[in-house]
């Protein structure tokens, strides 16, 4: 039977979803699962990608227009773990937040090795930096300001012309980009978005956000520290968002989802079960997810496939090193996913399509 996590754990998850790990006893399970997380029919339905991105190729094509990497909730230049509650203030100055995080958290590069690999391959890369806990519109407005600054003087911009750009968004970063395209950019903008590729973006909301907001509504202490972003990631909010934030016919939209098995050493094991439970509670049967976003919610525009055995952090190359080591030493299992290969392939896909 499904059991909800303790209230204290929910509070930690609320402060930073990526730090929610449950208890260590949930990390490991030698007991064979009696039910596979996806059956053969579902694997076909979700366009499962098993080993396409297991190894790097010798050469990748790159797009002629710059690639803009847009981070998800809580990220900026770095992905920060174990923050203190005060940095969750969506209205705080971005520079102040960044400084507080450096002092109080454990930080790693958000796009770990990805920017370097794309640049080495010959792509022009712009790293976005927006309010980590802000609302979608706040983050999109900051993204617009950054793009105006970066694109106005970009070496690839012709005088009197708008600089064409390709946006690649992880998680909430994809929603920021959709809002930017639909509501903010215009003919006077120094940039023009020609494509958007989203990876693990909750286009139809996250059941984790539903779960958290259900707890928040019953607890004033949790409500007081709830970032503005969380309620905007619920399935209810995204229904209205999708009606209002419509696609631009001049922009090409691509998307990837991911699905992780719930057994073994998994940071997102508890949240995987939360998503599964919430989907089944409303009568759904397709609960495959990456520990934060379901496969069904990840679909937007042309769906390019579901990355197999991949969780939400794997998607930005912050792989669960413990899991990888155990797989290699105990089970003699070779990793089947290299996120750098994914982003280089995204670059090549854009190149082949003339972007």
From TrEMBL:
Homology family: Belongs to the putative lipase ROG1 family.
Pfam families registered for this protein in UniProt: DUF676
InterPro entries: AB_hydrolase_fold (IPR029058), DUF676_lipase-like (IPR007751)
PANTHER family, A to Z: LECITHIN-CHOLESTEROL ACYLTRANSFERASE-RELATED
Taxonomic lineage from the root: Eukaryota, Fungi, Dikarya, Ascomycota, Saccharomycotina
Residue ranges of coiled coil: none
Domain DUF676 intervals: 141-208
Gene3D superfamilies documented for this protein: alpha/beta hydrolase
Domain of life: Eukaryota
Full protein name: DUF676 domain-containing protein
